[in-house]
Each structure stands twice: as C-alpha cells, then as structure tokens.
Amino acid sequence: MRAMVYRGPYKVRVEEKDVPSIEHPNDAIVRVTLAAICGSDLHLYHGMIPDTRVGHTFGHEFIGVVEEVGPSVRSLKPGDRVMVPFNIFCGSCFFCARGLYSNCHNVNPNATAIGGIYGYSHTCGGYDGGQAEYVRVPFADVGPSVIPEWMDDEDAVLLTDAVPTGYFGAQLGDIAEGDVVVVFGAGPVGLFAAKSAWLMGAGRVIVVDHLEYRLEVARTFAHAETCNFTEYDDIVVHMKRITDHLGADVAIDAVGAEADGNLLQHLAGAKFKLQGGSPVALNWAIDAVRKGGTVSVVGAYGPIFSAVKFGDALNKGLTLRMNQCPVKRQWPRLFEHVRNGYLKPSDIVTHRIPLDDIAEGYYMFSAKLDDCVKPLVVPNGQ
Amino acid sequence: MAYTADKPALSESSEELRRRIPGWGVDVDPRDRPSVPRERLDPSGTGAHWDFPERQDEVRPRERSIEHELLPPVFGTSCPPKGVSGWMRRLSYRRFSEGRAAHWLILMAADRVDSSGSHLRSFLTLRPDNPITETGVRSELSRRGWASRVGRKRADVVHQPLDAVIVFGPWLVAGRLAYAGARRVRARAGRRR
C-alpha cells in the first residue's frame, strides 16, 4: 500500500509499505477514504516530539471502510463506513471507565503520561496513522463508530479531532452565560472552540492570531471579534483595554507548541527544541484572563519543560484546565449540533490533497501558504 | 470596570445573540455538555466486553516506560528500534522515567541519529532522499509562496528562513567536512609520492 512516511525533520514522502495485519483479536483494518493534516502533525513534521522515528506514518484524523476485523470484534463488519477518533483506547482501564478515553493506560507502553494516538510518534504508542491507504485500528468495538448516513465525509473526518477538540476546549473553560471568551489561535481547533463558546452561551468571543486570512474566517465562520496581535505593541494590554481592564473570563490556548509572538520563545521551542514548545499563547492566556478566571489548554505541547508563567497563574487565582480531548465522549452531542446545522465542520476545509502530493501539503500547511486553513488528504485522489 | 463590583455590560443581550448566532446557548446548561462532570464512572458504556483486554503477541521485545508495571496489552509496532538510535532509545526507556529530562533528551538525540543515518543509508538504495521532493518546497511556486507572505504582517516570516537552515545546514556542513577530508587525504598522498 501507499503511505506517507516521515524521513526526518521537514521531510516526508510516499512509500510502499505492507498492508497492516490483525495483531490483536479486537483489531480492525480500515481502508482509508479521507484523512486530514492536523496542526499538531506539524510538531512531528518539525521534529519536536521525542521518539518520532524515520519510517513512521502520521495521521490521526481519518475515516474509511472496514476491510477486515479480528475474531473478537462484535460491533463492526467489513464494508462498514467508519469514523475513527484520534485516541486509541481500551474502554476498560481505570481511566477509560471514567470517561478519560484520551488517558487510557492499556495502549501505550512508551509513556504513562499520555494514551495512544494514531500516527503520533512512539511517545504516543508507536501506531501508524491514517495518511495511508490502510490503517490498523485497535479496539474496534470501542473506538470507531459507523458514520451516520446523513453525515458527509468531510464533516465526519473533522469530527475525529478538530471539532471535538475545539468543543472540548470551550467545555474546559466552564463558560457561563455572558462570559467573555478569548481564543488564542484561529486554526481549525481555535475556530471550533470559538464557535462552541457561543453554543455554551458566551457573551463575547474574541479570537487572536497573526494570520489575517484566518481571522477573516473567525469573523465569518465563527462570528467572533478578532485581534491581529502584530498590530499591537502588547496584546495583553490590548486585551485588558477591550475588557474594561478586567480581562476575559475564559481564555483558550488553541495554538500549542509553535506559537509566534515572541521570537525568543519560538526559536527556543519550535526551532532549537530547547523546551517542550513555545508557550507564548499560553502565557498570553494566563495574562489576558481575569483574576479568578479559567485558562483552557487544548494546544499540544511536547513532554519536556516549557517556560510557562505559573507565578502569574498562582497570583491571579486561575483555574488551569487541559487534556487531550476524549473524542468519542463528545460525539453524540456534536452529531446533534451538526444535524441541527449549528456546526458545519467542512466549511473550514480549504485544500484537498492527493496522498502522492503529501510533501507539498505539509509544506503548504506548515508555511501557511495559499490561505490554507484545513487540508484534507485523499488517498486515491488525483 | 475592575475597580467597582459590577460586571461590565455586554454590547449584545442574550436575545440578540440568540438571533444572530445559530445555536447560541443550546449548551448553556453544563448538564448538556458531554465532558461534564470530568469523570463519570460508566465502564459498561464504552463497548468493551472484557475486564482486561487479551494480550497482543510481543513478537519482538517491546521497549516500555519504567513507570509501567507491565507491558500494556496493546501497542503499536510501527518502527521497532534499530541500529545506534535503537540502542539509545532502549537505554532511555530502560534507565530513565518520563519524569527525567534525560529520558526525553536521549530520545530527541536518537531521533537525529536515526534521521541522519537513514539519509546516509538511502544513498545506498535505488531511492535516495531527495530534499526537493521530500520537503515539498515546490509549493513555494504552486501555492503562492510570495503572495502568501509579502505585505501580510505575518509574525512568522522573520523566522521561516531558519527552516531552510535546519533542513539544508547539516548537509552543507557534512559536505564541507567531506570536502576538507578528501583534500587532506589527497595532500597526504601527494607528499608520499
């Protein structure tokens, strides 16, 4: 089969690999029909996540058709059209039993601090991902779901990570009616976090980024006020000015490890890998939120230390909430929102890239060319 | 304002927001939010029909965090450790917990050894690494590289040239060292004659 393969920082290509096989009785093999490149894939692509091995196939956002199932699989059969959450989880460990699917303890030998994620380095379990023609899906009775007939493929693929993660970010903010919510990052997760903040009754939603074309999407798609931080000497002071010098009630970091806005932090984190990521957006969130407010973090960071301003968080009495999103827990409610027309995930898709052009896709998304917001990967596309 | 007790008034009322934004407030009640409360004990609702999953065969020794009591029953088999980088990875997993910086720094160093070695080995194959096709740099032409950056007040334009240094820098240094080495060998051979 053809699969995207990592060749080292900033280098990927398509190679022929063996079609994955059933390695556990509850495995399924899924033929991928549509995948996506996620902003967090760029951390792998840039060599920021430890234990990213040459030959690994990325891709944790994908849908497909069940090709084969293991002997203990009860809920799926070959031919089923399925969407697969980015988390790999067993459904039965201490954490899964409590709904913390992203923190499963039975799927990742390489680390206890994180569960399993498709195509996200050996630090997340060493599973190949879905930017390929086929993928192994462990715990087929637990993770994947049959795609409802009324749902289209592009909505479904975005429901495997970007939409639920954005919605989860808003949930972590504990938004109350009338709250002022500031979202750092106008990428796909930030856009869905902003959109979800309205569903939870926010009174104002402000999105901060430096890419004007994405802020335009935040205004039109997510109905948000926007701030381009390059236009202000100090974005924190500006945030205070536009919130009566209180600060926002809730701040959401939807940027993560490669944040811009402070060159030194960016170089230390993203370029020279001297910290687990550039915590610029997180520090802005801590400083821009009001005392007693809540900071929600859904942007991804690497496992080593980062220069985060915990002193400010302490002195302001903040609540810091974060996790990888337990995707499947969000689905029933999000399916309702999509069906009711409150969310139309595919509206943010800007590019559809054939698998054979995956290197150009990564470059474009990484360098933010061609007004790219969300690129999809079509395994058999032309 | 912050200096008095009242919360500042919003410019739009809830009714106005409900009219303007589709779905505004449908999840205003936290009970409608699927991850509230954060932990909800419901082991029967996950689809799992086991208390502990069957174990996947450990076909080859699987490295694992020393914070795990046992090898988890299911694991990825994407790229088993190999060569020098594999030795470094096994050392890191065997010796240091996830709480130690050494664990992650050794893994990062192993990643660099792995990619350098893989590049060199690729030159012994029919498909050597190609920095043009594998970086996707042709997107600069096909995806409006210039127009996407110029005049757009982007914060990342300052450091993007460093990406090229990160990709091509090691090759230039290696090439320079190889060239210097070859010259030295040739000079030594000339002196012998």
Short note summarizing the structure:
The complex is a heterodimer of chains A (382) and B (193). Chain A is α/β, with parallel strands linked by helices. Chain A is built from 11 helices and 17 strands.
Notes on the protein architecture:
The complex is a heterodimer of chains A (about 375) and B (about 190). Chain A folds into 2 domains: about 210 residues, Medium-chain alcohol dehydrogenases, catalytic domain (Quinone Oxidoreductase, Chain A, domain 1), CATH 3.90.180.10; about 160 residues, Rossmann fold (3-Layer(aba) Sandwich). Helix content of chain A is about 25%, strand content about 25%. Chain A has 11 helices and 17 strands. In chain A, the strands form 4 sheets. In chain A, strands 3, 4, 5, 8, 9, 16 and 17 form a 7-stranded mixed sheet that branches. In chain A, a hairpin with a 2-residue loop joins strand 1 and strand 2. Chain A is globular. The two termini of chain A are about 15 Å apart. Chain B starts with 13 loop residues before the first helix and ends with a helix. Helices cover about 45% and strands about 0% of the residues of chain B. In chain B, helix 2 packs antiparallel against helix 3.
